[in-house]
Specification:
Elements (H helix, E strand, L loop, with lengths): L1 E2 L5 H11 L1 E5 L14 H17 L2 E2 L23 H17 L4 E5 L6 H15 L2 E5 L1 H8 L9 H4 L4 H10 L28 H4 L13 H21 L2
Parallel strand pairs: 1-3, 2-3, 2-4, 4-5
Length: 241
């Protein structure tokens, strides 16, 4: 893999001249159940970015570790959040600086849903004003069709916060960080109006900071999910000009 933070400027310039492309991990720090780390989104963003880099030879740029996670704020601790405007300004300045060095394609690896609107704004503005192309690998969403036939459950029971899909991913990527003895099915709270956003703090509904049933998760499932999804992303990037 090619990590910008480990490169000297001579080699960085050489590698960027080859592709003029960069992968940027954008994560979050937030409660992810009692069995997964609070830096889950950041760790996944970095791990996936590294795997993409290994397959396609693009440089992985600086990570953005903390995102907009106000909806998952826990008064007792575990969530770190920044305002959307703070994230927007910081991330834009990073991308703008890198664009000055010749990068004209950015692949954001952004698992955290709360960051998607900010990345969308930046990407749209860069394309319109500087003809810089951007794409987003929205990890927890892109894996959903790929997971069919792999996971025990479909839909929300499998893809809810820290449920089967997320736990399987961590069992494969970072098994050292999974507290397997804490896996527990907490179910899904009934909602007769899911089509109407109500902006209820997450931990008010799910005090244990996760949703659904992670107990069917396994490293083998995680390996399939990661392998198939990374291959699809690489296939896309190879034809993206």
């Amino acid at each position: 893999m090619l990590l910008m933070k480990e490169m000297n400027f001579v080699d960085y310039r050489t590698e960027i001249a080859k592709t003029r492309a960069m992968i940027l991990p954008v994560g979050a720090f937030e409660v992810w159940g009692p069995h997964l780390p609070v830096g889950a989104d950041t760790l996944v963003a970095e791990e996936i970015a590294n795997r993409i880099s290994e397959k396609i030879g693009w440089v992985v740029g600086p990570s953005v570790p903390v995102g907009y996670s106000e909806s998952l704020f826990a008064p007792e601790g575990g969530t770190v959040t920044v305002r959307p405007e703070s994230l927007r300004n910081y991330l834009y300045d990073i991308v703008d600086s890198l664009a000055e060095t010749g990068v004209n394609r950015f692949c954001f690896v952004g698992p955290h849903l709360g960051n998607v609107s900010v990345i969308t704004e930046i990407a749209t503005h860069l394309r319109r004003t500087r003809n810089v192309k951007c794409c987003l690998i929205d990890w927890w969403r892109i894996i959903q069709p790929i997971c069919r036939g792999i996971l025990k459950y479909d839909g929300r029971p499998a893809h809810a916060h820290a449920a089967e899909a997320g736990t399987s991913t961590f069992m494969y990527l970072r098994p050292d960080l999974v507290k397997g003895e804490r896996l527990k099915d907490v179910g899904l709270v009934a909602n007769e109006y899911p089509d109407i956003p109500q902006f209820i703090p997450f931990v008010e509904t799910y005090p244990e900071a996760h949703v659904g049933d992670p107990t069917p998760a396994s490293a083998e499932k995680g390996e399939q999910i990661v392998g198939k999804t990374v291959d699809r992303v690489v296939e896309f990037l190879k034809q993206w000009h």
